[in-house]
């Protein structure tokens, strides 16, 4: 919110004879509003907690209505009353539209979006935690392509997604350089493509600070609590980006709290 805009709003409300409303409107405009997807557990829940503790109004979202409201209730017991729940299924576009309408109507703005929600893609048992520590890509050509933001495009990412599915069907993943070691290949590829897409968005919308954060190998339900880091440690990089002042990093990638290459 720019000072001149706040001043115009204040002057208009004062002229209308609503001093109390003017004070409340300006105060509200200065409070940051954040939406966190997958906020009902793990890293997402911790990010909601830390943002709210820093005075940010948080919209905690989750696919499951009951689990989402329970998460808000738990945080409320920590005297964090600046958190509200709204249902969101990130795989359902109408659900995203409903969330956007809710935020627009209730707050009139959104300052921070933490796109945290995700799924592993399969139900499995982890006998060896090292399977989660593998590098994203073993194929040097794929690494170079995803790191080349000047030539990267949304169309090319769609092509890579289709190529992966074709190679999977044909049994050619290892031959074509996809990250097969340790398993969870689809999960790794989807993460890499999503991170690459974030850089495309950052390039197309330079007035927004769009970045990616790898939180590290964090103890969450998704990996059956076999991680090395606590959720508090895993949330540090996310909070660094979310609470960074305007004009900071754009199109970057943090490995925990350190700047790193994408793949």
TrEMBL record:
Keyword entries, A-Z: NADP, Oxidoreductase
NADP listed as a keyword: yes
Keyword NADP assigned: yes
SUPFAM superfamilies, sorted: NAD(P)-binding Rossmann-fold domains
Superkingdom: Eukaryota
Pfam families: adh_short (PF00106)
InterPro entries, per the entry: NAD(P)-bd_dom_sf (IPR036291), SDR_fam (IPR002347)
Any single Gene Ontology cellular-component annotation: membrane
GO molecular function: oxidoreductase activity
Family per record: Belongs to the short-chain dehydrogenases/reductases (SDR) family.
Protein name per the record: Uncharacterized protein
């Amino acid at each position: 919110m720019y000072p001149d805009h706040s001043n115009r709003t204040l002057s208009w409300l004062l002229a209308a004879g609503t001093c109390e409303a003017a004070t409340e409107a300006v105060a509200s405009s200065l409070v940051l509003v954040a939406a966190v997807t997958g906020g009902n557990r793990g890293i997402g829940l911790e990010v909601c907690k830390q943002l709210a503790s820093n005075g940010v109004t948080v919209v905690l979202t989750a696919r499951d209505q009951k689990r989402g409201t329970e998460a808000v209730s738990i945080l409320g017991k920590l005297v964090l009353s600046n958190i509200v729940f709204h249902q969101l299924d990130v795989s359902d576009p109408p659900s995203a539209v409903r969330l956007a309408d809710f935020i627009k109507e209730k707050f009139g703005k959104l300052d921070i979006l933490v796109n945290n929600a995700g799924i592993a893609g399969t139900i499995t048992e982890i006998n060896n935690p090292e399977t989660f520590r593998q590098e994203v890509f073993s194929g040097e050509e794929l690494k170079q392509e995803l790191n080349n933001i000047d030539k990267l495009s949304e169309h090319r990412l769609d092509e890579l997604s289709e190529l992966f599915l074709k190679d999977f069907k044909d049994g050619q993943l290892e031959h074509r350089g996809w990250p097969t070691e340790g398993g969870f290949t689809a999960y790794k590829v989807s993460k890499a493509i999503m991170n690459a897409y974030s850089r495309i968005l950052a390039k197309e919308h330079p007035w927004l600070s769009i970045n990616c954060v790898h939180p590290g190998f964090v103890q969450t339900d998704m990996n059956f609590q076999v991680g090395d880091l606590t959720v508090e440690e895993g949330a540090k990089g996310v909070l660094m980006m979310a609470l960074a002042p305007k004009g900071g990093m754009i199109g970057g990638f943090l490995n925990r709290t350190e700047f790193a290459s994408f793949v």
